[in-house]
Amino acid sequence: MEWPKNYPSNCPLEDSRHPQSLEVYYLVDYNPPCKKDFLSLQERRPECVLATDNEKCQACGISVYTDLEGIELAKNVSRGLRRKKTAKGILTPDLGLIKNTPSQRTGDSHHTFWMLLNRLRLKNK
Length: 125
What we know:
By secondary structure, the chain is an alpha+beta fold.
């Protein structure tokens, strides 16, 4: 597997798994979604200081949710997410690895998804 060069050595996290045709929801700025919508926190804000190796690794992935309730919870706790649109997609094993990364702010359906290098595929209808 080839990962982007900006990933730290511990990334993706050890207990991540291959998604098996997993339907997920994602917050985007554009309709239809474009490449800019799939930048990680580390790519959008490289100046962001993170304390632990796990936080640095999570910042290289993208946040996805396994249900719409998780999306709504994220929008309710973060003013910056309220204007975003909800996109839906299917993650398959050939795209990368995923790990459930819940928190009080993001709920149980929050996952971090690490995409393999050059695997972004957008279907614009």
